[in-house]
């Protein structure tokens, strides 16, 4: 899975323009579904949302391609918001069943524990902050649903976080994705985005490990 994930990151820069040429405006449907699935279905936390949004922004800045940055921002913000809302409902209605051992292969207990720790540490703000952390991003609304968080409060941070995440990622690609140095090393930049965004997860894992060692001592 890790190998195929890295391959998809490396090929995305070449694959997406080809798909745009083949499918035209229908590519928006595919992009909507990618962001919706990553944020809305708890079993797909590994999809490259940050990299995809950055790449879309950089392509939208090119006059030779048909992607429109405004349409991207509106459409993909909606996908992120609706996705998190669905994920919240899944957690609220089916959270207990989906956290049993039979689901551990698709919903990793380690990742779920990280999301719970993140949610416990940041409270309601975790819904907003979690948008910017891979793996955590998909599991935070699910965790909020399990914890029976008040939906009115969840919706506020969901909308705020969805709009902020999509705008920052797409506009970063739009303004910086076509700088010669970035274009020349685009694959490395994509991997760099993934690496940097995983740093908070690694720090949380290290903190949890140290806490566990202290508890066992």
Your description of this structure?
Helices cover 78% and strands 0% of the residues. It has one domain (2-216). The protein has helices at 2-23, 27-40, 49-60, 69-98, 109-122, 126-129, 136-146, 151-176, 180-184, 186-216. The protein has 10 helices and no strands. It is found in: Cell membrane. It comes from Paucilactobacillus suebicus DSM 5007 = KCTC 3549. Residues 47-174 form the VTT domain. Its main location: membrane.
What topology emerges from the helices and strands here?
Layout: H1 2-23, H2 27-40, H3 49-60, H4 69-98, H5 109-122, H6 126-129, H7 136-146, H8 151-176, H9 180-184, H10 186-216
Helix pairs in contact: 1-3, 1-10, 2-4, 3-8, 3-10, 4-7, 4-8, 5-7
InterPro entries: DedA-like, VTT_dom
Protein name: DedA protein (DSG-1 protein)
Family: Belongs to the DedA family.
Please give a quick description of this structure:
It is a multi-pass membrane protein. The chain is an all-alpha fold and 217 residues long.
Give a quick set of tags describing it.
single chain; 217 residues; mainly alpha; 78% helix; disordered N terminus
